Amino acid sequence: MDWFTEEHENFGVKIRVKKKLFDFKGLQHIQIYETIGFGKMLILDGAIQLTEKDEAFYHEMLVHVPMLNHKNPKKVLVIGGGDGGAIREILKHNPDEVVMVEIDKDVINACRKFIRIDNGALDDPRVSIINEDGIKFIKEADEKFDVLIVDGTDPNPVSKSLVEKSFYKACSKITNIFNTQSQSPFIQQNFFKEIFDNIIGFNEKSVYLSFVPTYPLGLWSFSIATNDQLTFDLNTIEQRFNERNIETKHYTPKLHIASFALPRWVEEIVRGGK
Predict the structure, then answer these.
(1) Is 2 assigned a catalytic role?
(2) 2-51 maps to which CATH number?
(3) Where are the domains of the chain?
(4) Over the stretch 196-213, which tens digit does the pLDDT of each residue have?
(5) Beta carbons of 151 and 104 less than 8 angstroms apart
């Protein structure tokens, strides 16, 4: 048995692995491991994307917060998300149509074969999978979506276009509710602030936080925006959650509301402070 280490400038994340299941270098360097204690683990370009043990902490917060901000989401677009976890959670809301635009088909194929956290969601007839650049799809889209979710990697040469102002501006024209993962405000402050600041074109935007143990130092953020108003009423969120008969491992309506209560230092970053 060996260790996988995700190294950063001043710290690292270290997980014991039993064996390597997959290793392929294409558009991205894809590695899949069987770990000790965390189940299967997906690595892209040296960064942990998920482990079976805590992926629900991430996917449930990424999906249910924006989906429950909409009174009846029927048409949903996901940019990225090749592992299928976000699609799995979206289908719990019983939409009519889900489109996933993932630039790297090798990620989809590897996750389908070795991890399967989608629980069959990627094969659902309501789901369409398009293998192309997300920003190209967004800018050429001639249809609108109730909810648009960006499930991307850390900003890198493959995903850099997904954190630019032009991308977010284009998103604002085709969706009413937008959500994206926005890195760690604690140890990736520049990435976090760039993503939040670059979200333009919407009437309102906000940040909420969650905890994903196997992500860099655990604290993680999401940036949500809308052309209407965000819903912060617990009764409304609970009613929608219960009406849709959603079952979760991590997310709750109370956690949904609480996640928008930011520490002072995060508020200062969002407002432009240091």
Answers:
(1) no
(2) 2.30.140.10
(3) 2-51, 55-271
(4) 999 999 999 999 999 999
(5) no
Q: Which residue type is seen at 16? A: R
Residue 274's pLDDT band, with cuts at 50, 70 and 90, is very low
End-to-end CA distance of the chain: 43
At 144, list the tokens: 């609108």
The Cα-based distances of 98 to 75, 124, 149 in angstroms read: 6, 9, 11
Q: Which of 83, 118, 151, 154 is catalytic?
A: 151
| Residue whose C-alpha is closest to residue 179's, from 74, 53, 54, 86 | 86
pLDDT band at 194 (very low <50, low <70, confident <90, very high): very high
| 20 bridge partner residues | 33
- Fold held by 55-271: Rossmann fold (3.40.50)
Residues belonging to the chain: 274
For tokens 């949903």, name the residue.
76
Q: What is the pLDDT of residues 73-114, one digit of tens each?
A: 999 999 999 999 999 999 999 999 999 999 999 999 999 999
Encoded tokens for 167: 């991308």
Q: Which residues contact 220 (CB under 8 A, 6 or more apart)?
A: 58, 181, 183, 184, 209, 210, 211, 212
